[in-house]
Amino acid sequence: MSEPSIRSLLTKGEVLYAPGVWDGLAAKLAEKAGFKALCSSGYAISASLGMPDAELYTASENLGAVQRIRQGSRLPLVADIDTGYGNAVNVRRTVQMFEDAGATALFMEDQVAPKRCPICVGDPVPVLPLEEAVGKVRAAVEARHSPDTVIIARTDSSGDDAMRRAEAYAAAGADLIMPVTKTFSSIEEWAKCSDAVGNGLVATLTSNTWVEKEFSEEVLKELDVRLALIPTQGIHVAAEAILNAFTLLSKGGRPTELANVAMPHMQFISILGFPEVEELQQRYLPKAEA
Predict the structure, then answer these.
(1) Under a CB-based contact definition with an 8 Å cutoff, are residues 207 and 236 in contact?
(2) In whole angstroms, what is the distance from residue 121 CA to residue 106 CA?
(3) Do the Cβ atoms of 119 and 137 come closer than 8 Å?
(4) DSSP assignment, residue 111?
(5) Which residues in 95-126 are b (16+ Cβ under 10 Å) and which e?
(6) Is 202:79 a contact under the CB 8 Å cutoff?
């Protein structure tokens, strides 16, 4: 029986939620929490490397993160491929590499490389000329190995230009269109985009944005949002918890003081799969001599 894909989980009228993960542990925890899909968040992957989300890491580093996520969980994965790491020819190889790594949906933005996370900078980010951006979307669509792979075109433009781009990317074959949180400033603009595109949208419910606050599941369904990404919340919560724990310890606190906020040891190793490894030890390895 084949593994489910993102496309198989996308049903008109329903919203598929995918949290942002950055490594195998985060993937396991998201699966344990009950999610049906994952998103390899470029923002979170950058943060896990100690860097801002400004396309400072390489395509290979991003690909490695996706591979580690897939080792942690076999849930269907939406991969963030940033700008595709070059022009339309580079995009073809990028799409195929991330497909081979196990992603069954990919999203690519129309920013000029190196990209900058729009929620981290004040000024509008520069975007490619429309014709060049459309060519990259076409390349992604034509390069995929499987027709089940969902190609998501993200626009980091705004206003009327974003609307033109959304329509052009859909016409170029993108399965879904992703406006970012700064693309539009009202639900009405999102609705206009949804009507113009006609084949569904992707929303990023990014921390501390108006979209996170106002896009209830009812609103998402009204806008025909098929896929809702929750890209930054997990890494923010993890960072705060780790900072608090390390601060306490650095100021002379005893490790035992963290017991009431830490996951119990046995629960943690169970999630990691220690019982299964012990079973395999017994099945395959020689018994220790008495």
Answers:
(1) yes
(2) 24
(3) no
(4) B
(5) bebbbebbbbbbbbbbbbeebbbbbeeeeebe
(6) no
Q: Count the residues in the chain.
A: 290
Fold of the CATH domain 6-238: TIM Barrel (3.20.20)
pLDDT of residue 120: 79
> Which candidate, 198, 141, 205, 138, places its Cα nearest to that of 166?
198
CB 136 within 8 Å of CB 115: no
Total Cβ atoms within 10 A of residue 277? 10
Q: Which pLDDT score is estimated for 11?
A: 83
Query: For the chain, which ranges sit under pLDDT 50?
Result: none
Answer left, alpha or beta for residue 282, where phi above 0 means left and psi between -120 and 50 means alpha.
alpha
Cα separation of 60 and 188, whole Å? 39
Residue found under tokens 């009950």: 34
Question: What per-residue confidence (pLDDT) applies to 1?
Answer: 53
- The 3-class SS string of 200-218 reads CEEEECCCCCHHHHHCCHH
Nearest to 170 by CA among 189, 153, 148: 153
Measured in degrees and rounded to the nearest 5, phi and psi for residue 203 equal -115, 140
Residue 250's H or E segment, with its range, is: helix 233-250
